[in-house]
Amino acid sequence: MLQWLKHYRRDQLPGDLSAGLVVAMMMIPQGMAYALVAGLSPVVGIYASILPPIVYALFGSSMTQSVGPMAIISLMTAAVIGPLAAPGSALAGVLAAQLALVSGAVLLLCGLLRMGFLANFFSRPVMSGFTVGSALVIAYDQIHTLLGAELPHVHVPSAALGLGSLLLLVLARQYLAGLLKRCGLSPAASDVCAKLAPMLVVLGGIALMACTGLAGMGVRTTGAVPAGLPHLNLASSSAHWRVLLQPGLLIGFIVFLMSMSAAQSLALKRNEKLVSNHELIGLGAANVASALSGGFPVTGSLSRSAVNFAAGANTPLASLITAALLACALIAPTGWLALLPLPTLAATIIVAVLGMLELGILRTAWQYDRGDALAWGATCLGVLVMGVEAGVVIGVALSMGTLIWRASRPHIAVLGRIAGSEHFRNIERYPAETQRELLALRIDANLFFGNMESVTQRIECELATHQSARQLLLVMSAVSSIDTTALMALAELNQSLKRRGIGLHLAEVKGPVMDRLRNSTLLQQLNGKLFLSTANAWDQLHNIKDVA
């Protein structure tokens, strides 16, 4: 807690100040936009951007992560509270805060129980498919706001403003950084300035609403934004706690995954060490803080954290400065925010989420592992067809299913000796020598209840293929554990081979595995020998004709 503050250096302050200012300018339109995605009043997005990053700075382990509203979490929030309360209503705000509280409590509990390893059970392709599907859902939901009406009917002034804003944002995303570089600005500064284009477009939209008659033409705006800091929020709906429990658990899981993805990418650039359990506690505390300040579920944002990093952030002080500036924006008169046109805000949402459509992972998965590519497609389709919560469940099921499927079918190689050496390789890949009466198999996986049937079937298949073999050598160099089911299966295999006059030998058994085998009867009943190396076994078994 606050370890970074104990070692803070004065030379880090300029970078933290500049990053805090830049992210604050980015957070005003982004926070309000994501609150709309969640079905809440726009000011709630700013509320959720003040206290959570302050609390995360106390407990989190990332030095540059920006915690606050995020598009996918906002969509999940809307999916949960939408059927329970009207968008923008007081009840919707209460339920969103309750959802943040449930998610925060789940994350805190997982952190205290040291369950940070859970982040490893959602594969990158599945996570990418979930992100892409969610981005498409968010973009589609914003089209009616962008055009000012439901398709096919269009409100022309709103559509002109929305499409114009969209065009400016797309052009800025594609060309602004390059243009600034050609004008002499440094690459880093150019990229940061290009990221501030949404704020400039929002200010332009506000100026148009103030100086023209667009408001009289029916262009909708955010409306009055309450001035002042958020109050302590203890409101709750006792009738909805049970309904929010399961969605809160799912949202907490996705909050952790999204945040770890963002934090890890930045930590690698700075050679920093992330502590997953501290991240759980930091994110849990941030969500509890969001609930108590009238916000909704928050997480670390990859795009916003990248801007924070590029703008010079060195420590969490940058996030504290951002929070302070946002608080000042609420303390100051907020009348100008009331003129923010909703079509412009919809355009910022669409451009932001379409930036999440990175298809590189799908391309890589398709070329490398078609199973991962199919999991990507199934998760994305699940989000589009069945909804975000179903997409999460499908993603988790596919990740775990893929893990179990691969673990249950371990690779087993028939080994032969490379001529003139003590190296043994797969005979399907190398021109290796074999022995007529010796079958050497290398098992490239841990042995457990889920794969022993497959392993024994493969062994029997190889024995049927090599009918002249009187000695079976299992090379255990890749086996780090053997559970009770696998131990019993090996004992049964040993007895079966003994009845058939075939010796069972083990080589290169790892120390931890050997320690556990000594506590069993397998070694005493083994119908063969233990060997330190495959080479020793190969030489000694060469002349053995019958089982002793």
Automatic annotation (TrEMBL):
Cell compartment(s), UniProt: Membrane
Signal peptide boundaries: none
Membrane topology note: Multi-pass membrane protein
Keyword Transmembrane assigned: yes
GO biological process: transmembrane transport
Bilayer-spanning residue ranges: 34-59, 66-85, 91-113, 155-176, 196-219, 239-263, 317-339, 345-362, 374-398
Family annotation (InterPro entries): SLC26A/SulP_dom, SLC26A/SulP_fam, STAS_dom, STAS_dom_sf
Annotated ranges, domain STAS: 428-548
SUPFAM superfamilies: SpoIIaa-like (SSF52091)
Keywords: Membrane, Transmembrane, Transmembrane helix
GO CC annotation, single: membrane
Coiled-coil positions: none
Protein name: STAS domain-containing protein
